[in-house]
Design goal:
single chain, about 325 residues, alpha+beta, Ribosomal Protein S8, Chain: A, domain 1, 3 domains, 5-stranded mixed β-sheet, 5 strands, mRNA binding, rRNA primary transcript binding, repeat
Length: about 325
C-alpha cells in the first residue's frame, strides 16, 4: 500500500497492531506504533493503538514497557478501559508480581468498572502462575469479581475440601456461565490443581467437563489406532487427560482387550495460549520423566506416536492401573 502511495489511516494501523499483538510479534508492533507517532495528528496513536501495544507487551512479560505506555496514555488524556487493565493484570501475573495484580484490580473497581468474563478468565490464568504462598491474594480478587468462581477456586486449593463439594460447586457454576468461556475457565481451574498437587480435584473438573461436553472428541478410536487429542487444552488439563487415557489403556490390558497397532497423542505445535511455551514441550518433558515410549512423528510437528508392543511393555511395568495413575502424577 505504501509503494502504491495509498493512504494508511489510523484504523488500518490499529488493525496491523492488533494482528501483531494476537500472534506475539512484539517488535513489529513497537515499530508500527513508533511510525504512527511521527505521522500527522489524524494518524497518530489513539487509545486503541495503545491498548494493542500494551497487549503485545503484556504477553511477553515486559512490565516496564507496559507501565511506560500506560503513563503515556494517561498523559495523553486516555483512561484505560477494562480491556487494557485486563492485559496489564496478565502482564503482572506472568511476571509473578502479585501485589501489582491486586493493586490494578483495586484500581479497576475504583474506576467503577464491572469485571467481565474475559477479565475473570484472566484472573484465573494469573492464579496458575502465582506462587503458592500468594494464592489467597489472587483468589480474593477472583471472589470480589465473581463470588461463585472465587468460592470454587478456594475449594480447589483447600486440602480439606471434599471432591463431592468441589463437583457440586463446579456444576452449579458452569450451568450459569456462557458457553464461550467454559473451556477457558475449565483449563485455568485445572492448571492450579496440577501445580499444587490437588490431582483428585483436577480429575473431578475433567470428568465434569467431559460430562457437560465442554471438552469433546479428546479420545478417538479406529481399528488401526487410538488417539488422544489435547491440543485445545491447557498444560494442566492436558496432563490430567493424558493420565486418565493411560489409565484406561492399562485397564483395557487388564481386561484382556487388544490394543491397536498404533497409539497417538496430538499435542499441536507452536506457543500455547495458556502457557509461556508450547504444549508439546510440556507433555514431551512429562513423557520423558515417565520413560513413556512416545516419540514425535518425524514429519508432523505435535504428533507423538508409539506402537502396541512398546506401549504394552511399558504399561505392564506397573502391577495395576491404580499404581500407574500414581506414577503418572507423582
Amino acid at each position: 500500500m505504501k509503494e502504491e502511495r495509498m493512504e494508511m489511516n489510523v484504523i488500518l494501523y490499529n488493525m496491523l497492531l492488533w494482528m501483531c499483538a494476537d500472534i506475539g510479534c512484539v517488535d513489529e508492533a513497537a515499530k508500527i506504533f513508533a511510525e504512527m507517532k511521527g505521522l500527522p495528528d489524524e494518524r497518530k496513536p489513539d487509545s486503541w493503538s495503545s491498548s494493542a501495544l500494551i497487549t503485545a507487551y503484556a504477553c511477553s512479560k515486559n512490565v516496564s514497557e507496559v507501565e511506560g505506555l500506560l503513563n503515556e496514555m494517561l498523559e495523553a488524556g486516555y483512561w484505560p478501559d477494562i480491556f487494557v487493565l485486563t492485559s496489564i493484570i496478565q502482564c503482572y501475573g506472568k511476571a509473578r508480581q502479585t501485589g501489582d495484580v491486586v493493586r490494578t484490580f483495586d484500581k479497576l473497581l475504583k474506576l467503577g468498572m464491572t469485571p467481565d468474563d474475559r477479565f475473570c478468565g484472566c484472573l484465573l490464568n494469573v492464579l496458575t502462575q502465582t506462587p503458592t504462598e500468594e494464592l489467597g491474594k489472587v483468589i480474593d480478587c477472583i471472589e470480589r469479581a465473581n463470588v461463585k468462581l472465587g468460592s470454587l477456586a478456594n475449594l480447589l486449593v483447600d486440602e480439606g475440601a471434599g471432591n463431592g463439594t468441589v463437583k457440586k460447586e463446579a456444576e452449579e457454576l458452569f450451568s450459569n456461565i456462557i458457553n464461550e468461556v467454559k473451556k477457558a475457565y475449565c483449563n485455568c481451574l485445572i492448571d492450579p490443581c496440577v501445580s499444587i498437587n490437588r490431582s483428585e480435584k483436577a480429575y473431578v473438573l475433567l470428568d465434569m467437563a467431559l460430562h457437560l461436553e465442554i471438552y469433546t472428541d479428546l479420545p478417538s478410536k479406529s481399528p488401526t489406532r487410538w488417539s488422544l487429542h489435547v491440543k485445545s487444552l491447557s498444560p494442566g488439563a492436558a496432563l490430567t487427560d493424558f493420565s486418565v487415557w493411560m489409565n484406561d489403556l492399562s485397564k483395557a490390558l487388564e481386561n484382556g482387550e487388544e490394543l491397536p497397532p498404533l497409539l497417538v497423542i496430538h499435542m499441536g505445535h507452536g506457543k500455547h495460549k495458556y502457557s509461556d511455551k508450547g504444549l508439546a514441550p510440556v507433555l514431551e518433558s512429562h513423557l520423558r520423566e515417565l520413560n513413556a515410549p512416545f516419540h514425535e512423528a518425524p514429519n508432523t510437528a505435535g504428533w507423538f506416536l508409539t506402537t502396541e508392543v512398546a506401549a504394552k511393555s511399558w504399561l505392564e511395568l506397573s502391577n495395576s492401573s491404580e499404581q500407574l495413575l500414581l506414577r503418572l502424577y507423582h
